[in-house]
Structures are given as C-alpha cells and as structure tokens.
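README, section 4: Worked example with a bound small molecule

Sections 1 through 3 covered apo chains. Here we extend the same pipeline to holo records, where the ligand is supplied as SMILES alongside the sequence. The molecule in this example is flavin-adenine dinucleotide. Nothing else about the input changes; the structure line simply encodes the ligand pose together with the chain.
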Amino acid sequence: MDSQDPASSGASTNRDITIVGAGIIGLTCALSLSRQGWRVRVLDKQAPGMGASYGNAGHMATEQVFPIADASILMRLPKMLMDPTGPLRLDWRHFPKALPWFARLLWNLRSTPYQSSVAGLRALNEPSLAAWRRLLDAINGRHLMKEDGSFLVYEEERSRETINALQSRMASQQVTSEYWQGDAIRDKAPQLSERIQGGLFFPETAHVVNPWQVTDALTQAAKAHGVTFQQDEVVSGDVDAQGVSLRMANSPTVRTGKVLVACGAHSAALTTALTGINVPLDTERGYHLMLPRERGRLPVAITSLERRFIMTPMDDGLRLAGTVEFAGLHRPPNMDRAWKLQRLSQGLFKDDLDIADASPWMGFRPSLPDSLPIIDSAKDGKVLLAFGHHHLGLTQAAVTAELIANLAIQGDSSVPSAPHTALDLSSYRLHRFAA
Ligand SMILES: Cc1cc2nc3c(=O)[nH]c(=O)nc-3n(C[C@H](O)[C@H](O)[C@H](O)COP(=O)(O)OP(=O)(O)OC[C@H]3O[C@@H](n4cnc5c(N)ncnc54)[C@H](O)[C@@H]3O)c2cc1C
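The generated complex, written as structure tokens:
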C-alpha cells in the first residue's frame, strides 16, 4: 500500500473523509465518496480486500431476504450447535461472550422484529444488483459480475415440501424463483449427479468471477480517483468540535473531518470509542475450500439445501463455501471445517472433485443479532458507520456505498448530490442498540 497523504496529517477539513477498513464495504464507499468530490483516505491494518471480503462465496444473494435464524430452527438449534462437524458450530469457550448476542437473536425471532428484519433485508437486496451495475460500469468492471442466476438444489424427496414452502415464503417477499426438475438442472449443469431431484432457480441473482478481483479493481479505481491508502491499525479515536482524531498503532494520529467505520467484524471497539454506544457485534466465522483444478465444472452458483453449503464457479477454480462457527475473533481457524466442504460435495457430482492444490480459508462475517447492518451517521455527521453485513456484505456493498454517499452530504449543500438509492434508514440505525 502506498502511504501518501493528501490531507495534511495535522489539520483536517470538513471535506475529507477517512475510511477505516478496506474490505468490500470500505472500498465501495471510498469510490462512491471520491466520485462525489470528497478527499478520501483509507486506513487498513492489512492490504485492501484481505478480510472477510477476500474469501466469500461470491454470490450476489438477492434471494436471501430472511434473517439467519427463525423460530423453526429453535428446536433443532441445541443439537446443531453440539455437533462438532455440523454446518453450525459453537466453541463453548466463546459461549459466555456470545450469550448476550444469542439472547438478542432469540428476542428478534418474535414476529414483529423478525418481520422488520425481513423488510430491512429486502430493502437492501432489491436495489443491490442495479447499484453494482452502476458501480462496475463506472470502473469498466462489468465483466467481474456474471448475472446468470443461481440454484438451490435438493436430493431427498421429503425436501420437496421444504422447497415448496420456501418458494411460497419467498414469493410473498417478491423474490422471483422458478422450480426446476432435476433433469432440467442437469441440462444446465451436466456434471451434477442423478441424486439432484430438483431445485429453485433464482434468475435475479449473480456471482462474481472472484471476490478478490473485485476488491482489487475497486482499489485500483479508487487510487486512480485520488483516494490514498495507508497500512496501519487504528487503535482508537475521539470526536471533537473540529473533527475526528484516529490514534494509529505505528504512525502519527490522523486528523480528519469525518470518519467512516467499515472494519467489518472488528468495528465494535472503534464505534464505542467514537460514539459511546456498545454494539452487539459478533462474528460468524465461515470457511471456504478453493479448488483450482475445477475451472468450468459449474456454470452458476449452486447451493445444496440438505448439505448447507454453496459451490461457486470462479475464474481461478471452484469455490466451496459455507458453515457458521461461533468462536470469536481470536481463536485459530479449524481448517478441518474447510476440508469438510470437499467431503460434503461427494455424491453431488458424477465424478468427485479434484482436490489437488486445494486451499482452505477462514474469514469473519460481521454479524449483528437482527441480521441487519448498521448504516448510519452519528456525532453531527462526523462519524459514519457501515458494518455488520453478515452473510450479505458482497451483495449489499454497492447499495451501502450509495447510502453512505447520501449520508455524507446531509446538510452540506456545497457538495453535488448524486443519490441513486434513497431508503428509509431507520432499520439500520446505530441507536437501535443504545441501552
Ligand atoms: C465463508 C464466507 C462466505 C461468504 N459468502 C458471501 C456471499 O456469497 N455473498 C455475500 O454477499 N456475502 C458473503 N459473505 C459475507 C461477506 O464476505 C462479508 O459480509 C463482507 O466481506 C464484509 O465486508 P467488510 O468490508 O465489512 O469486512 P472485511 O472484508 O472483513 O473488511 C474489514 C477490513 O477492516 C480492517 N480492519 C479491521 N479493524 C481495523 C483497525 N482497527 N484498523 C485498521 N483496519 C482494520 C480489516 O483488516 C479488513 O480489511 C461470506 C462470508 C464468509 C466468511
């Protein structure tokens, strides 16, 4: 990363913004804000795009309008959490810390908050592909997103009922899906085995050719637009009448007119330091296994209903991804969970996948207990917040960037406004977590 600094490190103006976090959220915001005329600096403790945004499944999951948990899984939850190799795992050492998060999750399963989470997810997902098109067009990056749809497939006859029920629930939320028989799915994806009985096709979904290529393209475009990058960790921050001070681990304090907190799963401490509000942010750790020898095996992303994981075709191979692990931010990864994805794939294809040169990975999904991100401004607009996008950060990044660009110019008539997405942001407010 280069470390040139357009805003003098001592003084700040109210026309400069410092973004903490160069994940997919920070980078899309950097580009939107710089295109709106802001002087933008991005701080990250590692190279851009190396957090959760590096290894996600690349699925533009507009169909996922339901929160991560609903009342129907309550009975199955204890058994699922106890199974060390299951798709959902709780490290019991993390349990005391996670308890308040789980308590809020359960509280949010009541009908009214659950329905408001569905509405909040829908409101972000519906405009998300259009926002991505606008952003990718602006950087000549349309080839990075394939708008070919995706499948949710099932193998067991008894799952047909589940699929039918899901399709009706989705239809009630205006999510378009088509039921396809197994043979029709195999016509489209001939490598799939006879075990696939059928599934739902989601025509209004997409996938990216590789998440890192997207963040790299955004980084290069942002640099070309004058955004500067500095590699260092933000340790804490304060807001005063003139602006914001960010204390750095290895470099002088950064002064800035506005700050955007976009540190993904690591956003809680800085948010508390800047706003005084404790956010119940936890992480759902997820894994992938990248298979470089499996280029071209699938035409679109395919999720298995029973096996609960996704397989996405990428430029550099097939990515198997999924699983949810509650083990906090500090415990080492258990890469057996990534290798388990290969075992899960057995039987789904006519021939087993080639795992030569496969590479496992683990990343931290930033998750709030109501399944909605925080997209907000605080402290008279000096602090902007965009984090907590859990399983949908890639999907919702471009729309989040448009919303943040709108928030940044609130009350400032001198900045040209170019809002594309205008949403009621009340569901994404920081203050929903104020005690
Ligand atoms: C296995 C898996 C599969 C997924 N699949 C999908 C999918 O198919 N579709 C989808 O939409 N989403 C998916 N997601 C979710 C998505 O990846 C995340 O929601 C998204 O990447 C979050 O982006 P972010 O920018 O908020 O966080 P990150 O990408 O984690 O970026 C945060 C950045 O902040 C930096 N940072 C943190 N603290 C500090 C600090 N104090 N100082 C400086 N820098 C700091 C980090 O270094 C990091 O670069 C998946 C996630 C996982 C783990």
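What to look for in the output: The two ends are 39 Å apart (CA to CA). DSSP finds eleven helices and 21 strands in the chain.

Section 5 describes how to batch many such records.
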